[in-house]
Amino acid sequence: MPIDAAVLESMHTLGVTFEEMDCDPELADTARFCEVYGVPLDRSANTILVASRRPEGHFAACLVLATTRLDVNGLVRRRFGVKKVSFADAEQTRELTGMEIGGVTIFGLPADLPVWIDAGVLGHDWVVIGAGSRSAKIRLDPRQLEGLNGFEIVPGLGREISA
Length: 163
Fold this sequence. Notes:
Elements: H1 5-14, E1 19-22, H2 30-37, E2 45-54, E3 56-65, E4 68-70, H3 72-80, E5 84-87, H4 90-97, E6 115-118, E7 127-130, E8 136-140, E9 151-154, E10 158-160
Parallel strand pairs: 3-6, 6-9
Antiparallel strand pairs: 1-8, 2-3, 2-5, 4-10, 7-8
C-alpha cells in the first residue's frame, strides 16, 4: 500500500477526506513531482521537520507551500524560544517520523510532535502533500485541517520566495 498505514489510520481517525495519488518514488521530490505529474507548485505543500540546535530537544513538523520558504530562523526560532534552529537531517527525520524525506507528512506523527501549518496553505481548495511514503501523495482540501486536534495554523510560517 503506497500510503503509510499509520498515516491512513491517522487521517481516518481525524475524519480527513482525501484522494490518493500514486507516485514513482524516484519522482517524489517536490519540483520533479510537480513537473511530471502536472501539479502547480502553489498547490504542493511540504512537511519539513525542524530541530533546535541551541539548546537541543525541540522539534516541530511544519507544512508550507512549495512556493514559500519556511521562516526557520525567524518565526520558528522565536516559537521554540531558542537561539538556533535548523532543518532536521534525513536521519533525524527518519528516527522521529519513521518517514523518508520526500514522503514526510503531517499525519501519523508521534503525538508529542507539534504540527504547524502555514495559514497560506488554507488559501486553496486543494493541495498535494506527502503520504508517509515516497510511493504516493495525498490530495486534500487543506481547509479541513483547521481546528483538528494537534494541528496549529500559524500565519507567516512560510514566506513567499522572491524572484
